[in-house]
Amino acid sequence: ARQVAMVSYRTPLGYHKKFGRALTDESGPSYGSKAPWQVKSYLEYQGRKFLDRFDPVTYVKLTEQMDSHDIGRGRGGLADNVLAHVEIPVCVLGIDSDVLYPLREQEELVRGMPNAELKIIHSDAGHDGFLLEQDQVAAHIKSFLY
Prior knowledge:
Layout: H1 2-9, H2 12-19, H3 38-53, H4 56-68, H5 78-81, E1 90-95, H6 103-112, E2 116-121, H7 129-132, H8 134-145
Parallel strand pairs: 1-2
């Protein structure tokens, strides 16, 4: 499941740049399910690391809670009744290649808050751009705070 998640929220270009068609061992087969692709090794490693850190049942419950959380529930909806009352300055960061949280969702947040601005992180890394594009993230935060 972790491998599927990682493939779905990163971009093909990001994986191509990082791994291409490289093998971990040139002596093995270069095709088929037994080929030692670097990307396959990386995804398997990340899956094992994830299992070591998280209890599966706890993760499922946490995910269910995150998926069902709605700050607009019981308040008449998100945009008109919740976001419109956020008066403090807000800097929303969005990643142009993120399919997990697409830019349109960040744009919706900004439209709903009277004092918000959207800053876009340009990245081939998809959702992980917020971790991998630290210079861009830091620059936007500094610009907002100062």
